[in-house]
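Project standup — Tuesday

K.O.: blocked on the structure for the chain from last sprint. Re-posting the sequence here as requested.
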Amino acid sequence: MFKKVLAIALLLMMLASLPFPYSVMGGLAEVSFQPRMNTVWGTEETFTVNITLTEITSLYGWEIKLYYDPSILNGTDASEGPFLKNAGQTFFNFTINDNYNATHGRIKAFNTLVGQVPGVNGTGVLFTVTFKTKDLGITTLDLEETILADINGNSMPHTVKDGGVEVLNVINDVA
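H.V.: unblocked you, prediction finished:
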């Protein structure tokens, strides 16, 4: 019995000492919205949300698809966040399609470092999206098909937290 316990303990120690190619600082990296839930008062209002990444090591590039209800929001712009830019030259690209299908608008964004530079470590803003409200209601900001990659193009494990927007009626207080 003692030999089995010793063998298992030695095996676990050996596995723990092996390098993990996608190390993260303190846990699994997370892609999410900042702020996570937005309340906007009235239609025809413009607002922005940041898509952020927390606790990553050696990020070289990413691709994200963001879906939303086009009857409530229009995607109007997307801009590169500072996270990858801090490491050097980047290539950022995005497309906005408010009529992606019958029920969704979609913003597809892509960003990568250029050249043989080390990946980025830490936490930061990947990109910022600007929306304009069209109608009252609630829509999910749904992050799908998120890809984080190292310099070799290997996918990096991560979690995703969706966000949301509530567009409320402006009530004029006449007293």
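K.O.: great, moving the ticket to review. The chain is about 10% helix and 55% strand. Residues 4-26 have pLDDT under 50 and may be disordered.
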